[in-house]
């Protein structure tokens, strides 16, 4: 694959380093008391980022964006599905055939507006980095990667990542790469672009044998016109930092470099963490910070810095998600937070008051982010290595890469 011959018009003279989408309206995306997808995750993240000074200064722009209109949503979603979401939102009408009113995706008042606001924020960030209005963009409310064109799934109503990527393509981008490090397979984004050679989807997740949505195996490599543009690493349950980072190292840089994206879109679900109640991976805040740093570096190396980073899953509401996503904001703002940084005392007091719990007091879990690189050799007796080797064997040849050497 070739390096881009052209890119959009030049950046503004001094665009902000980070465009962060945020407004209280995003807290409306909440399925109610007792549901894992609590909007407190977003509130606590933005409060923590502010408390650490990451949103101060002229190089960070915090913007309130408009909700996506139906025409924008329908670039990915079926018209009948958008109408069904509106009916659920306005009248409480369930449609279980379309995933609305299920245990995962219960109907709530304002569902359409809340979900469309998330989409609008991701599209705004994508076009800002593409058109040069910002170097990087972050939408921690985004990353709703399970939504399908005609159905809600896995806590996701509209697929903001897919709509943002479609908006980039419609605006002239020729190659967009999507990397998903959520513990769950990024199935909705993969499905939308399954047979589109302009989009590379890479997902690093817990095996579908153990975890929803039950997809994302190495053999899933793309449709007949886009073979090799879907790359899936199905990790063994209980994979920890060293294995998770080794798998990332073995697959992500090589396929991104070969694809040569003009824009990088990433999804940073924090549910791979060892404290997450819904998954069985054992990944620390520190390892997830390392992944954010590497993706940031790859965005600058390959895509002129054009990087849209999204949130996603993550259900350890106060102990994990705010720290992971605040590290992401820091990396994207070119103000990385030292892992040993103390959490602000007023933020800690807020968590104590709101939840009656004492949160972690540092931005680290005390892990060092060390791993054995893939170049050090393959161990056929190791479950993690076998999973990685299966991905490389399935996807690399279709991209023109050598599964053993690249």
Overview of the molecule:
By secondary structure, the protein is α/β, with parallel strands linked by helices. The protein has helices at residues 40-51, 70-73, 79-91, 111-131, 160-170, 187-192, 241-259, 285-303, 321-332, 345-355, 383-395; strands spanning 18-21, 60-63, 136-139, 176-180, 199-206, 230-235, 263-267, 307-310. Strands 2-1-3-8-7-4-5-6 form an eight-stranded parallel beta sheet, sandwiched between helices. The longest helix is centred in the N-terminal third of the chain and has 21 residues, at 111-131. The radius of gyration is 20 Å and the shape is globular. The two termini are 14 Å apart. Residues 1-6 have low confidence and may be disordered.
